[in-house]
Amino acid sequence: MPMFDYVRAHSIKEAIGLLSDPRYVSRLLAGGTDILVQARRAPIMFQRLVDVSRVPEMKVIERRGDEIYIGAAVTYTEILESELLNAHAACLVEASRTVGGPAIANAATLGGNIANAARCADGIPPLVCLDATAHVRGPDGARAVPVVELVSGQRQTTLQPNELITHFSFPVLPSGARSVFLKVGPRNAPTLARISVATAGALSQEGRIQFARVAPGVVFPRPQRCIEVENLLIGERPDAALCAKAGAKAAQVMIEIAGQHWSTNYDAIALRGLVARALRRTFQLEE
């Protein structure tokens, strides 16, 4: 592997200053589970890594009023161990359980997973399902960007040069809401997602669906919620037939948006089943 410099930032302000230093072409390092692998496979395009993995402002997990805040340098192990996230963001906790073995979970960060913007990123569907916002800061100041707009394609984001994600925030789900994350991959072990989905839902006092979100992963060119499926669910009483209908609708929407390709038949069958199963779990139906 070619040589490069390394420096650790101790604050967001310092990290932005280091990234903006004109003497170097710099890249952020959080957990290193993506960038160091990439550096071994292809010529590196940077001269220095700026490590933000221990910046205190980027390590928070806390509730502020009706919103949850998660620092971009929070690891997946820290998400798994958070009582707050287990109570209010179960889909993100479930996704964290699937990212890899303990060594990966201890190092990989939520911000790094999103900024890397791989279509198979486990962190993207839960954040989209939770309607999360990415808070970004750079030399020109701070801005807030919905995660669905931040990730613009496969390994593409709308981050500007020398910007970094500092944290994410999302509204607390309605009272009684449940959320779920499921994925399928090429093996029955921690693996990259072939297809994934995050769902959330809540029932009214009359037992009808009053809140529903469905966010498939991998199958669309860029992250998005499946609004057509959500609209199909709202106002209905949940049962296995409705969940199956929602799964079929999700597969239809996938084909309309992504088009036909060599794996479409498999993807449609897998997505249909995965969405139906996730919704059954969300609304606590017997399988």
Radius of gyration: 19 Å
Please tell me the CATH architecture of the largest domain by its name: 2-Layer Sandwich
Query: Level of helix content?
Result: 25-40%
Q: What fraction strand?
A: 15-25%
Give the beta-strand count: 13
Any idea of the CATH topology of the largest domain? Answer: Uridine Diphospho-n-acetylenolpyruvylglucosamine Reductase, domain 3
Quickly give the structural class: alpha+beta
Continuous helix count: 12
Give the domain tally: 3
CATH class of the largest domain: Alpha Beta
Q: What string, H for helix and E for strand, traces the elements in order?
A: EHEHEEEHHHHHHEEHEEEEEEHHH
Average pLDDT across residues? 92
Distance between the termini: 50 Å
Envelope shape: globular
Largest sheet: 5 strands, antiparallel
What report would you give on this structure?
- The chain is of the alpha+beta class and 287 residues long.
- It has helices spanning 12-19, 35-41, 76-80, 83-88, 90-96, 102-107, 110-116, 124-129, 147-150, 227-233, 240-258, 264-282, and strands at residues 5-8, 26-29, 48-51, 61-64, 67-71, 133-138, 141-146, 151-153, 156-157, 164-171, 178-184, 195-203, 209-217.
- The longest helix is centred in the C-terminal third of the chain and has 19 residues, at 240-258.
